[in-house]
Amino acid sequence: DTLGTHVLCGVINAEYMGAQCIIKMAAANGVARVWVGLNALISTPAVSGMIRRREGGAAYGGFILTASHNPGGPTEDFGIKYNCENGGPAPESLTDAIYKDTTTIKEYKICSRMPEIDLGRPGRHEFDGGKFVVEVIDTTDDYVTLMKEVFDFEALRTLMSRSDFKFIYDGMHGVAGPYAKRIFVDELGAPANSLLNCEPKEDFGGGHPDPNLTYAVELVKHMGLTREGLLLDGVNAANVPEFGAAADGDADRNMVLGKQFFVTPSDSVAVIASNASCIPFFKGGLKSIARSMPTSGAADQVSQRTGVKLFETPTGWKFFGNVMDSKDVFGGEDFNPMICGEESFGTGSNHVREKDGIWAVLAWLSVLASKNSTGQPFVSVEEIVKQHWKVRGRNYYCRYDYENVDSDKAKNLTDHLTSMCGAGKPDAKLDGVGLATVDEFEYHDPVDHSVSANQGWRFLFEDGSRFVFRLSGTGSVGATIRLYLEKYEKEPANLGWGRDEALGSLVKLALEVSRLKEFTERQSPTVIT
Fold this sequence. Notes:
By secondary structure, the protein is an alpha/beta fold. It has helices spanning about 15-30, 45-55, 90-100, 140-150, 155-160, 175-185, 215-220, 265-275, 300-305, 315-325, 355-370, 380-390, 405-420, 500-515, 515-520; strands spanning about 5-10, 35-40, 60-65, 80-85, 125, 130-135, 165-170, 195, 245, 255-260, 260-265, 290, 310-315, 340, 345-350, 395-405, 430, 435-440, 445, 450, 455-460, 465-470, 480-490, 525-529. It has a seven-stranded antiparallel sheet. It has a six-stranded mixed sheet with strand order 4-3-1-2-6-5, sandwiched between helices. A five-stranded mixed sheet has the order 8-7-9-10-11.
């Protein structure tokens, strides 16, 4: 028996060569058919969509060769990810089984003399009388079709055509470029020069394709901001676009900016969820919202005021995928349609089983279109967010990333954090407010009933403020210590504070209690978002 169809994609040239290798291994191991992206490029959300939808969901799964997924290779910027037949990331049960096999494997099969496939042109390649087929596909067609089912493209064209609306999008030389050109320029009518860095490059143009204030340097400057999110000196606001956005290397993450205004990822999820009815996909009503534990509680405020069910999960899109598949895969309750997001600039819905950067941009454009009637003064991103705060309250939020920390130093820190859990809770106060609980977050999946322990250290205060530590090993450079800080305010007079004014005392206390500087020998974070 053959192993059916698999999807294969990569992001940069090294993955192009890896794609040829996987094709030859697939042929040797009885796979019947492989779909591969034109030039070996498919965005991660597009892969998910292909697995789920193309030919009625014919694919068994897909290999994604991309930066940041448990990085390996000589520069620690290469990884392999497997998505299952639901289009989502493989669950831990499967990745654990794969790892176990790697400890015993003695040999592998490969058709080494099979000719390499021309991946630069769409086409069908048959071998052994059609028993093995490779199809090279321009996947922008599939993805555009899906987006047109989700969004009202006519309303978005009207927004793009406004004389008082200027749009800019930074592909950061990742895989998003071809999709951005097809959707924003060809379909919605944005000028071609509204796209920055949308030519995919092997080295991402020498940049680091993380869509945040630190690394999306060109976009942030265009939007009249500093890397701290403050107003850039000497900028004429009249020349700043009304909307800007950036993508990461595989186009699953996003950053959204208004005119001289940064939208935090947590606020972005909450604003989209609060305005979901303006998107045709959610016309029947939103059933659930999900966020990762480190993400701020802004989405919780939407849930509490609308009655929409909320899920708090560990970091990782596969946990959202389980909730999305509750009915179809597990025979449980239907929680779709849902909107979900992570503070690490990931946003999406159940249209696929991955976060989706371009989906997030289209969602924001839909919100803008719904707020801006023809002939009326333009309602800005900043005005929409501030009105949201006025109604829901504001979750002041910040993340400190300490990148590429020595593993022994990181372990000393995490051992200290663990020692403070439960009975070891320190006698600490935040502006007179007591520390209520210290624990390690443990998630009991309501769908498949699995348990995910040790998902981050939480320091929770009596007024709802908190700081959280999490160790991440999936950044593009190496292991990273992340510190998340959050304080909720609902008083109108307190909604306009700056970040340091709102969170300064919380930052100071977190660093003192954790002794982070002592353990890591780092005096400041690598990135602040």
